[in-house]
Amino acid sequence: VKKLHKRHAREGRPVARAAVLGAGTMGGGIAFTSALRGVPVRMKDIAQAALEQGLAEADKQLARQVRNGRLKPEKAQAVRAAITVQRDEAGFDEVDCVIEAIVENLDVKRRVLAALEGSVGPGTVIASNTSSLRIDDIAQPLARPENFVGMHFFNPVPVMPLVEVIRGSRTSPQAVSTAVAYAAAMGKVPIVVQDGPGFLVNRILTPYVNAFVQLVADGADFEQVDRAMEAFGWPMGPAYLQDVVGMDVGAHVFDVIAAGYPARIRPVERNAIRTLVAAGRFGQKTGGGFYDYEADPAGKPR
Ligand code: 3HC
């Protein structure tokens, strides 16, 4: 694997400076992980409140590392200083890679990425952290689709090793190599996957979550299902997992997979996740989902 990563590092564009679009949970986690591994990052969001949330996410992660004894306090300051927050794209012409982590909406992504092409250099790699949208669909209006690739991180970004690198039909081998090498430099385990709704992980995860909502619709208690799956050996049960991922994100991934593979997945009509979305209970990020988190927004439900 190391040999393979070295080859990608040779063939890709070295990432010495990066940028992240979107300062939500994922954007903040990606910016933090990049800065921690020595690649300074510009984090852009159009909303000041989102920038503050992204920085708060990075601060939380830094405090966690210092608390765990993994990072010396003086190094923590340097990592924090390596994250610049901004509401425009100043300095984007000097970055080697931009990771987009904005809302999971095809039209918005297309519009924002097409505009981004005007702010970056001609060789800058643009990666989307989309959880399930096809790279070819997002790339449709781009002038330089060869520079565009998927880089799908998992939540919580600092601890989840996997990154799916998605090769669109027009993505250049150099862009794939850049994404693989950058993910490896961030301490991650990159895998290259073909383009298609849900890529690899969400094609496996979605039927599992669908089976869970089916169980709940049949009358199962979600907490008991969580206890069972945790006793079975999984790190967290499906309800807690949805709270961590975000109910809105989970519902969107489901829609993409259901539309992409209509013969393979049967949606559950009376669906606990949709009920929670309609109630604005998106999970940990809104203080409650299946469980309540008001006392400790990132804490465990029990
Ligand atoms: N942020 C950063 N670090 C965290 C964290 C968080 N939110 N939660 C826990 N950690 C760290 C802890 O600090 C600890 O680190 P240490 O070893 O240095 O002390 C380590 O993770 C283990 O933490 P805990 O002992 O407190 O808790 P757990 O043993 O329950 O582990 C977990 C937490 C790693 C999050 C584990 O529960 C897990 O792996 N859960 C599954 C998460 C998952 O499946 N994510 C993917 C979601 S799907 C997705 O994102 C894709 C999208 O497209 C839908």
UniProtKB/TrEMBL annotation:
Taxonomic superkingdom: Bacteria
Protein name: enoyl-CoA hydratase
Residues of the full protein shown: 302 to 603 of 719
Domain 3-hydroxyacyl-CoA dehydrogenase C-terminal: start-end pairs: 198-293
Biological source species: Pseudorhodoferax aquiterrae
Keywords of the record: Fatty acid metabolism, Lipid degradation, Lipid metabolism, Lyase, Multifunctional enzyme, NAD, Oxidoreductase
Domain 3-hydroxyacyl-CoA dehydrogenase NAD binding, first and last residues per copy: 18-195
Family: In the N-terminal section; belongs to the enoyl-CoA hydratase/isomerase family. In the central section; belongs to the 3-hydroxyacyl-CoA dehydrogenase family.
Gene: fadB
